[in-house]
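step 4 of 6: structure.
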Amino acid sequence: MNRLFSIASLAALAIATPVAAQESEQPEYPSPNTIVEAAPASEWVKIAPSDLLVMDLAPDTEGNSRRVVIQLMPAPFSQGWIRNIRKLAAAHWWDGTSINRVQDNYVAQWGDASEKKALPEGLETVPESEYQVDPGLVETKILLKMFETYFEWQLERTGIENTAPDVSKIPRLAIYETPYALDGDFFQNGWPVSFDETESGKWPIHCYGAVGVGRNYSPDTGSGAELYTVIGHAPRHLDRNIAVVGRIIEGIEHLSSLPRGKGQLGFYEDASKRIPINSIRLASTLPESDQPRFEYLNTEGESFAKYADARANRRDPFFIVPAGGADICNIPVPVRRVMGE
Amino acid sequence: MNRLFSIASLAALAIATPVAAQESEQPEYPSPNTIVEAAPASEWVKIAPSDLLVMDLAPDTEGNSRRVVIQLMPAPFSQGWIRNIRKLAAAHWWDGTSINRVQDNYVAQWGDASEKKALPEGLETVPESEYQVDPGLVETKILLKMFETYFEWQLERTGIENTAPDVSKIPRLAIYETPYALDGDFFQNGWPVSFDETESGKWPIHCYGAVGVGRNYSPDTGSGAELYTVIGHAPRHLDRNIAVVGRIIEGIEHLSSLPRGKGQLGFYEDASKRIPINSIRLASTLPESDQPRFEYLNTEGESFAKYADARANRRDPFFIVPAGGADICNIPVPVRRVMGE
C-alpha cells in the first residue's frame, strides 16, 4: 500500500540526535501527538475513579515515590476477575506483597511471593469461557458490515496505482488486519479488541502495558490476586489464554525499568530483590485530594481516526516513507491526566 | 484460522504463579524452546567474531560488569553504515561516550552527548536509497513463487472447516502477513525482512532488540556514531525511515532496565544520569580468550520451521487456544552462546 503514499520528505523528531534542527514552517501533515493535542474536549472521555487501581510501591533507593495507575477494563470483558480484584483491593490484600518477577521483553508480575496468604472470602472462580465474549447477533452484524466496508475500501485503494486514496472515505472505525484473529482487530470504547465471527467472539488484546491475571494450568484461570503487565513486544499468543483485566495508564516505567530477575521466567531468586508493594487501592477509596483523574480519547471520534491514520502513515517531519498500515498495538490509545473537579 | 485448531487443553509455564504444578507426562506438542533445544548441530550457524560488536558499559552501582553484544547485519543490508561502524569501533571512538536516552516502550540510545567529538576520517555518507535493497529479478521471482504457494496453502487451510491442516504442507519458508509491507514479512539468513514487489524492495525490520542509526532530518541518514536499540513494542513505522544495522543478542537487559530519561524523548536531562560506555569493539579485535562466540538457528532449516509454527500455534502445556498465526517480531530468531574453538 505504501506506493500510494509517495510523499516527499516533510518535517518531527523520532530517533534524532539531541540537537536535531527544528523545521520552522508549519508541517502539511500534523504528527499523531499534535492531532491528539488539538482534539476538542468533547472527544475526551472521563475515567471513573472506581475504574482506577492505584499501586504504590516502596520508594526507590533515592527515596522517590513510585505510583502505578491501572485502568480496569469496562464491561463486557473480564468482569468476573475484575470483581475479584475490587474485593482484593477493598481487603487491602496486596499491602505488603511484592513485585516478584521481571522477565525481559515479556512481563513484570506481582502478588504474594509466599503463596500462603489467605485470599478474602467470596472470590469467584471464573471459567475459561470468560476469556472471550459473544458479541450477540446485532453487534456481529454491525461488525461484519464494518469489516466489509473496510475491505472494499482497501481493495479500491490498493487497486488504483499512483493515486492518493480519498482519506475522507476511511471508515471511522478502522479495522486492523492481524494474524491473531480471523476478522481483525479494532478499537471499542477505548480498548483494542479482536473479532472472529466464526468463533462468535471478541476478546481483549495483550498490548504493551496490558494487565492480566496469572494462573496455573488449565482449567484454573487465576483469581486476580496474581497480576502481571506486558513490558515488551505484544505477546498476543496469550490472548484468550489469560484474562486481560486492564492496562497501565501511568507509571509503567516503575515496572519496566526494574532489574530483570535471574531465576527461571525472570523470578527474583534472591528475595531481597523483590520490590515491596505498600498498597493497592481503588482510586475511589482514596482521599479526594489523592484521587488521580484521567481521561482517554474517544476511539469512535474523529480525532482518534485521524490519530490512528497518522500513526499508520507517518508523514510528519523526520519520516520519509509512510508505512501504509499499523498493527493495533502500535496505536496506543491516548490517555491524559486531568485536574480534579 | 483459530477454528482449525480446537485442541483440548494441554500442559508449560507462561504466566504461571511461582509454584505451578509440573505436568509429568510427555506433552504431545513440544514447546518452542524444546524444539530449539532439540535442533541438530547442523542447523546452527556460527556468527563470525568480526560481525559482533561488544559494548562494555561502566559497572553498575553494585560493581557488576555490563556487557552488551550486538550482531551486525549481513549483506546486502545497511552495509554503508556498517562499514562506518567498523571504523568507529577501530578508532575506539565510542570509548568515553554514554547512553544518553532511554524512552519507555521505544528506544535506548547512545553516542557522544557533547556532540563535539570529531568523527574519524573516511566515514561514508550513505544515501536514503540504502534503506531498502532491490532483490533482483531472480530473487523476486523466487519470493513471489513462495508467497503464491503460501497463500494457496492458507486458502486451502482456511477453506476447510473443522479439519486440522496438514502441517507437513506448510511451506518451509513461511510468510507473515503484515500491515507494513504489501507482500509480507519473512526470514532470510537469520533476519526478519519485509518484501514488497511493487516497491522492488526488501528491507530489515525494527523488532525488539534491533539496533539502528540515529539521524537528523532527511536527507541526513546518520553516520552510525549515534545508535539506538528497540526496548518496546516493535516500532515498525521506522522501517525504511532509519537504517537497521544489527540486533542485540546478549545483555539487552543492561539497556532495557535503565531508568527512563525525564527529558523530552527520554533524554537524560541530568548529565550525571548518563551511563558511561567504557568501550565498543569488534569482537575479532579482542584478545582470543575474551571473544564471545554465538550461533543462530538457521531460519531456512526444519527446526526453525517447527519452532515458528509452535510460536504461532502454542499447543504446549498451559495454552488453551493456539493463536493460528504470529507477527514476525513475535518469533525471535534463536541465538545461543557457544564455547570457543
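step 5 of 6: annotate
 - Chain B touches chain A through 87 residues (CB under 8 Å).
 - Confidence is low (pLDDT under 50) at residues 1-14, 16-24, 160-165 of chain B.
step 6 of 6: archive
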